[in-house]
Amino acid sequence: MVAMIAAEFKKQFQKLNPEQKRAVETVQGPVMVVAGPGTGKTQILTLRIANILLKTDTAPENILALTFTESAAANMRKRLIGLIGPAGYYADICTFHGFCHRLIRESPENFPKIIGSENIGPAGQIALIRKIIEATRLRHLKPFGDKFYYVSEILNALKKLKNEGWSPDYFKKTIASTAA
User: Fold this and answer.
1) What is the pLDDT along the chain (180 residues), one digit of tens a residue?
2) How far is CA 27 from CA 45, 63, 107, 139, 156, in A?
């Protein structure tokens, strides 16, 4: 079985360019792979994981691989299983979001600010903004006759503020200072 795994690894490894091979051959320490779409990042990372498992005494369950998309995570797992067999199921391959969600769920005591809270989906976000608009006495809401016209723009603005690191407290202080 090991010879078969090594043969498949070698076959895939030979297809790489020198920089890719260097990333795969590095079994100690971090490696940063920066490249555009379709350039083989998933393959490089999968081969590196396989190489670590083949050349060290690292157990598959001690591997953590994070990606941005569910598709990339599934692709990486499928490739790893193709390279090393069923042991590939034990490597922890998931999205950043999925990993963080699991971490919060498994260790809630480390996240006191969000205990008891839940993620809100797009429909819930729209409903919440509509509820706020309904409950607020707005005198100059345009366009006249459609008070919910800007709900999606409000959500996009809130998302931008969040991405820029604005906390609710900072937002309140900023609003208060401009209103004065």
Assistant:
1) 556 667 888 899 999 999 999 999 999 988 888 888 888 888 999 999 999 998 899 999 999 999 888 988 999 999 999 998 899 999 999 999 899 989 988 888 888 777 666 778 888 899 999 999 889 887 777 777 788 888 999 999 988 888 888 888 888 888 888 876
2) 11, 12, 30, 64, 42
Q: Are 72 and 42 in contact (CB under 8 A)?
A: yes
